[in-house]
Design a protein that fits this description.
Helices cover 21% and strands 34% of the residues. It has helices at residues 27-33, 39-47, 65-71, 102-107, 120-124, 147-152; strands at residues 15-16, 51-61, 79-88, 91-100, 130-140, 159-168, 171-179. It has a single domain (15-185), classed as Chorismate lyase, CATH 3.40.1410.10. It is built from six helices and seven strands, in the order βααβαββααβαββ. By secondary structure, the protein is of the alpha+beta class. The termini are far apart. The protein has a seven-stranded antiparallel beta sheet with strand order 1-5-6-7-4-3-2.
């Protein structure tokens, strides 16, 4: 049976990124949340080629309700759901969940459907017309994560995250990134 998420027991609660939100976040979290470039590139600048991607889930499924709303997807429409763990030499750094509608994959000439162990950021930041549409932030309690993720990513505290709607040639996708304690030491 297909599942909506390997990461979560239930959909996280998100807060719209309004003015003033930034200043409520710890400085290390602000640094990652408001990073204008590729998080993958920032990780590579610090860790070099030690960055790896572990695919936790990749399948076609209906996204969570708030994700469908952000992407204007009908309730019964599937998207490619990809959840990964970015790590450096086995140290968990960032968990990510990406929702890519079929129309976006077509525009991207299928590159997004065949990422394998390549980080998404390497691919989408190579598109010259990549746009950031909007961003939300969250603080996720350990009780929201699935137990296997708590164990794999060594989560024992609340984790901050951001989700960003990107567009490639006006076709949208949603990228959610969650900053694990190890990555917050690098800012």
């Amino acid at each position: 049976m297909a599942i909506k998420s390997y990461l979560f027991k239930r959909e996280p609660l998100w807060l719209e990124n309004r003015s003033g939100v930034r200043h409520t976040l710890p400085e290390s979290v602000q640094s990652w949340t408001y990073e204008p470039g590729s998080l993958t590139q920032r990780l590579r600048d610090y860790y070099g080629n030690a960055i790896g991607v572990k695919i936790l889930l990749q399948q076609w499924h209906t996204p969570f309700l708030s994700e469908r709303r952000l992407l204007n997807l009908p309730d019964n429409r599937y998207g490619l759901i990809r959840e990964v763990l970015l790590h450096a030499d086995g140290k968990p750094l960032i968990l990510a969940r990406t929702i890519i509608p079929a129309k976006t994959i077509k525009v991207a000439k299928s590159n997004l459907a065949h990422l394998g162990n390549r980080p998404l950021g390497e691919v989408i930041f190579s598109y010259p017309k990549l746009e950031r549409i909007e961003m939300d932030v969250t603080l996720i309690k350990p009780s929201t994560w699935n137990q296997c993720v708590l164990d794999k990513a060594n989560i024992n505290e609340s984790i901050y995250g951001r989700r960003t709607v990107y567009a490639i040639a006006q076709r949208q996708m949603l990228v959610s990134e969650f900053f694990l304690p190890e990555v917050l030491k690098v800012f």
